[in-house]
Design goal:
Layout: E1 15-17, E2 23-25, H1 29-35, H2 37-61, H3 65-81, H4 83-93, H5 95-115, H6 119-133, H7 136-147, H8 150-161, H9 163-181, H10 188-205, H11 223-240, H12 242-245, H13 254-273, H14 287-318, H15 322-350, H16 353-372, H17 379-405, H18 413-444, H19 449-471
Antiparallel strand pairs: 1-2
Helix pairs in contact: 2-3, 2-9, 2-10, 2-14, 2-15, 3-6, 3-11, 3-18, 4-5, 4-7, 4-18, 5-6, 5-7, 5-10, 7-18, 8-15, 8-17, 9-15, 11-13, 14-15, 14-17, 14-18, 14-19, 15-16, 15-17, 16-17, 16-19, 18-19
Length: about 475
């Protein structure tokens, strides 16, 4: 299955066929790059705008911090696990085709969220959203890695990624206004529009790949590998937050831990024996890919923790409205944008190691500062710290993307991008989950809210130290 289409490149050098049969020029790679930004808007709006709504949803349903974290986690688990699936199927069935499938699933999930009357229905909708939106990042990365040579790839990835912070600037601000003056459900209106726009632009601008599609290959696809991986990830997160799932104190339900170990061991054994595995574990023998993936996961751990904690922190400690919280997160996204493209350019010039180390070190320092700020600290100083965190996080992003794909064969870009994205967003799953558990534990110990938040930020700092140490050995 792997080598069926190696005789011809995924994208033709001069012309490609669009789904309608029209022949269009693909020599302008930058036009394709810009078009690939549009689907990302849908994903980022959903992430950033929902975070602003979290304090309102928490208070509406009278839920604890651990349960509030699950409002994020129930989205990110299928989001993470499905990424390699889109990458693999994109290599086999065509990346453009998979875009439409993912966007359609996401739109269905968004409608479920909009019409949900209970917390359970809301979580189901969020899970469907996660399955649909998980294909956007790996498919975009794979296409960019195919059409841009290595010397230009870091800058291209940095340019493509810049739409994330741009959306992150606008999204939280709009979300805050909609929540304060209308309803938290209204935030999904702009998200639906972004999804429709993404489908239209991909249809018109991204060329159809010239390959014969054999749909019968789906029957022999490694679906058991997909299931085992999903079960392993899910039971791990259940163990971390078992109080919500089984009623046993978090990190103490050993049944879930044993189940997680069993599922992961079964996954590894099965993947090694399968002739065409869901995830070719041999890809991790590429040390550059492995280190970049782990560093990216740690970066996302801090990013997702901040995205989850900061709205709650500003509400609990400073009693800020959703609008003001949205403005602060908007500035955080602006800081991300300020260094994201620069990080890609520095990686092209000096290799990825320097911007990765610099960015992760800045993130680590800002977590130390958040852990020592007192309740009397002016909110302006908190804002400055959050902005610096965004500057650090933006500096390392494109450099990590570039490093992960630097030694991957062209015909494996979709698979590699899917695995990398899965590992990367594994940090996105763990950040809110671990943060919610630690925060709730502190509150249950009758600590003041500021003291409970301090413990969480110290823990994030410890994880970032590990990221800096791994980034130190990141060579291309």
């Amino acid at each position: 299955m792997k080598n069926r289409h190696l005789q011809q490149p995924p994208f033709q050098n001069n012309f490609s066929t669009v789904g309608s049969g029209e022949i269009i020029s693909t020599t302008d790679n930058h036009a394709i790059l810009v078009s690939l930004m549009v689907p990302v808007v849908m994903v980022i709006m959903n992430l950033t705008m929902f975070n602003i709504a979290l304090p309102t949803i928490r208070d509406l349903y009278h839920i604890q911090a651990e349960v509030a974290a699950w409002m994020v986690t129930v989205y990110t688990i299928p989001f993470m696990v499905s990424m390699p699936l889109y990458g693999r199927l994109g290599d086999e069935l065509g990346k453009r085709r998979l875009f439409f499938v993912g966007i359609a699933i996401f739109m269905i999930g968004t409608i479920v969220v909009l019409t949900a009357n209970t917390l359970s229905q809301l979580m189901v909708g969020r899970a469907i959203q996660g399955v649909g939106s998980s294909g956007v990042v790996p498919l975009c990365m794979a296409i960019i890695s195919q059409i841009f040579p290595p010397a230009e790839r870091g800058r291209a990835l940095g340019t493509w990624n810049s739409i994330g912070p741009v959306t992150g600037i606008v999204g939280p601000f709009i979300a805050g206004l909609l929540i304060d003056y209308l309803s938290w459900r209204t935030i999904f209106g702009p998200i639906l529009v972004a999804g429709l726009a993404g489908a239209v632009v991909v249809q018109g601008k991204v060329p159809q790949e010239q390959k014969v599609v054999h749909f019968h290959a789906l029957r022999s696809f490694d679906w058991l590998g997909v299931a085992l991986l999903g079960l392993g990830v899910t039971t791990t997160v259940f163990y971390l937050s078992s109080q919500v799932i089984t009623g046993v104190a978090s990190l103490q339900d050993w049944r879930l831990l044993i189940l997680a170990i069993v599922f992961f061991c079964a996954f590894i054994v099965w993947e090694k024996r399968h002739k065409d595995p869901y995830i070719a574990l041999s890809i991790f023998s590429n040390t550059t890919f492995s280190r970049a993936s782990v560093c990216s996961a740690i970066r996302m751990f801090a990013m997702s923790s901040v995205g989850f904690l900061v709205p709650l922190y500003l509400t609990d400690v400073y009693n800020l409205s959703a609008s003001l919280t949205g403005i602060i997160l908007m500035l955080h996204a602006g800081a991300l944008l300020g260094t994201m493209r620069l990080g890609g350019q520095l990686a092209d010039r000096w290799s990825s190691r320097r911007p990765v180390l610099s960015g992760m070190s800045v993130q680590m320092v800002t977590m130390v500062l958040m852990a020592v700020l007192s309740v009397s600290t002016p909110v302006g100083l908190v804002l400055i710290v959050i902005i610096f965190h965004g500057l650090g996080a933006g500096l390392s992003l494109a450099a990590l993307h570039r490093a992960s794909m630097s030694k991957i064969p062209r015909e494996q870009t979709g698979t590699a991008a899917g695995v990398y994205s899965m590992v990367r967003f594994g940090g996105n799953v763990l950040g809110p989950t671990v943060g919610g558990v630690i925060l709730q534990h502190g509150l249950d110990q009758s600590l003041l809210p500021i003291e409970a938040y301090h413990i969480v930020f110290w823990c994030i700092c410890g994880v970032m130290i590990c990221g800096v140490l791994i980034g130190w050995k990141l060579y291309e």
